[in-house]
């Protein structure tokens, strides 16, 4: 281990809200664009705001976007994530296309993982080369394409009858009794 890790914050890398298990949840919660209306260094960010910001906001309704004009300051974007972390990015003298790429990077990353010394929850002297166990490790791959609910894959036939099914059975029994009495 090198000494450069001593200056990084220490933390675990985990998927917040079990991201990716059920559905994808965008981790970017809020982004604040701070820029100068007249400075030449803010030109690229102003172009991004004029041309692409509305489209970004429409495509990402879960992300709150703030614009904060400031006089004689360099342009900055502050991204806040669901786990509470903040990432500051300086956009001074950046072009419109560079800013597009950096905004996409901020949107898709979890937080500033690059500046984190990674730790593990468990430690072993003999690590497995097969990877960690998950609940889906030994499941039948046929489940991926099966039409569910399916009796073959579960005990669905032992479930209690619904009220609708009970009423349907009573109605059919009553119909049979009426047919027998009519004969």
Automatic annotation (TrEMBL):
GO cellular component terms, A-Z: mitochondrial large ribosomal subunit
Where does the source fall among the domains of life? Eukaryota
Q: Does the keyword Magnesium apply?
A: no
In this chain the Ribosomal protein/NADH dehydrogenase domain maps to 37-110
Q: What is its main location?
A: mitochondrion
Extract the GO molecular function terms from the UniProt entry. Answer: structural constituent of ribosome
InterPro entries in the record, alphabetically?
Ribosomal_mL43, Ribosomal_mL43/mS25/NADH_DH, Thioredoxin-like_sf
Keyword field contains Endoplasmic reticulum: no
Record keywords, A-Z: Mitochondrion, Ribonucleoprotein, Ribosomal protein
Give GO terms for biological process. Answer: mitochondrial translation
Q: Where in the cell is it found?
A: Mitochondrion
Which protein family is named in the record? Answer: Belongs to the mitochondrion-specific ribosomal protein mL43 family.
By what name is this protein known? Large ribosomal subunit protein mL43
Question: Origin organism of this chain?
Answer: Leptidea sinapis
At the highest ranks, the source species' classification is: Eukaryota, Metazoa, Ecdysozoa, Arthropoda, Hexapoda
């Amino acid at each position: 281990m090198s000494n450069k890790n001593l200056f990084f914050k220490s933390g675990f890398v985990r998927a917040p809200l079990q991201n990716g298990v059920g559905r994808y949840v965008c981790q970017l919660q809020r982004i604040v664009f701070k820029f100068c209306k007249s400075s030449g260094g803010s030109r690229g960010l102003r172009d991004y705001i004029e041309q692409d910001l509305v489209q970004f906001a429409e495509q990402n309704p879960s992300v709150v976007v703030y614009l904060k004009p400031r006089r004689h300051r360099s342009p900055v974007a502050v991204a806040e994530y669901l786990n509470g972390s903040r990432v500051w990015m300086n956009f001074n003298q950046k072009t419109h296309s560079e800013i597009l790429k950096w905004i996409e990077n901020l949107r898709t990353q979890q937080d500033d993982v690059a500046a984190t010394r990674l730790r593990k929850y468990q430690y072993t002297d003999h690590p497995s080369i097969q990877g960690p166990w998950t609940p889906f490790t030994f499941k039948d791959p046929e489940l991926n394409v099966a039409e569910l609910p399916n009796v073959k894959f579960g005990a669905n036939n032992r479930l209690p009858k619904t009220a609708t099914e009970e009423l349907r059975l009573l109605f059919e029994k009553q119909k049979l009794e009426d047919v027998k009495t009519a004969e």
